[in-house]
Amino acid sequence: MYEVEKTDDEWRAELSPEEYAVLRQAATEPPFLGEYTDTKTIGVYRCRACDAELFRSKTKFESHCGWPSFYAPTDDDAVELVPDNTLGMRRIEARCRRCGSHLGHLFHGEGYDTPTDDRYCINSISLTLEPAGVDAD
């Protein structure tokens, strides 16, 4: 059970068809087309469905995979990790812990030069970016 629970009709009314497909049906947006793939704006990335804080720009890095990549969520409770055995492979799905919306997937051990060697590969459409003030990190 999630803190934010809505009916399917409520989600459909609040989200665009593209947002609904990704956030509620675990679809994937096309690579290299997402709004935040190459963004360097400093700020907080929030869940587009429920506004929960998920990632900060200081953990975003260039992975050249076609989707925004982060090496860690804002805290241990921001993202729920769920085994995903769809498409004939074993992956770890990343969901918003507050509303259960699909964000993307977590990949570990790919050799990126990050503090965690994790890559949260996140669909831009599942996020909104709240730019920080001038003095933010």
Could you explain how this protein is built, in words?
- This protein is mainly beta and 137 residues long.
- The chain has one domain (8-131): Beta Complex (Metal Binding Protein, Guanine Nucleotide Exchange Factor, Chain A).
- The protein contains 2 helices and 9 strands.
- Strands 3-4-8-7-6-5 form a 6-stranded antiparallel beta sheet. It has a 3-stranded antiparallel beta sheet with strand order 2-1-9, with no helix packed on it.
- The longest helix has 9 residues, at 17-25.
- It is globular and about 40 Å long.
Descriptive terms for the model:
31% strand, six-stranded antiparallel sheet, three-stranded antiparallel sheet, mainly beta, single chain, 137 residues, 2 helices, Metal Binding Protein, Guanine Nucleotide Exchange Factor, Chain A
Quickly describe the structure:
By secondary structure, this protein is mainly beta. The chain has helices spanning 8-14, 17-25, and strands at 43-47, 53-56, 60-61, 69-70, 79-84, 91-96, 102-108, 118-122, 127-131.
Number of domains: 1
Oligomer: single chain
CATH fold-level topology: Metal Binding Protein, Guanine Nucleotide Exchange Factor, Chain A
Order of helices and strands: HHEEEEEEEEE
**Between the first and last Cα atoms, what is the distance in angstroms?**
34 Å
Q: Tell how many strands the DSSP assignment holds.
A: 9
CATH superfamily: Peptide methionine sulfoxide reductase
Specify the biggest β-sheet.
6 strands, antiparallel
Total helices: the number is 2
Mean of all residue-level pLDDT scores: 94
Strand order of the largest sheet: 3-4-8-7-6-5
Unreliably modeled segments: none
CATH architecture: Beta Complex
Helix content: 10-25%
User: What share of residues are in beta strands?
Assistant: 25-35%
The gross shape turns out to be globular
Radius of gyration: 14 Å
Give the structural class. mainly beta
CATH class categorisation: Mainly Beta
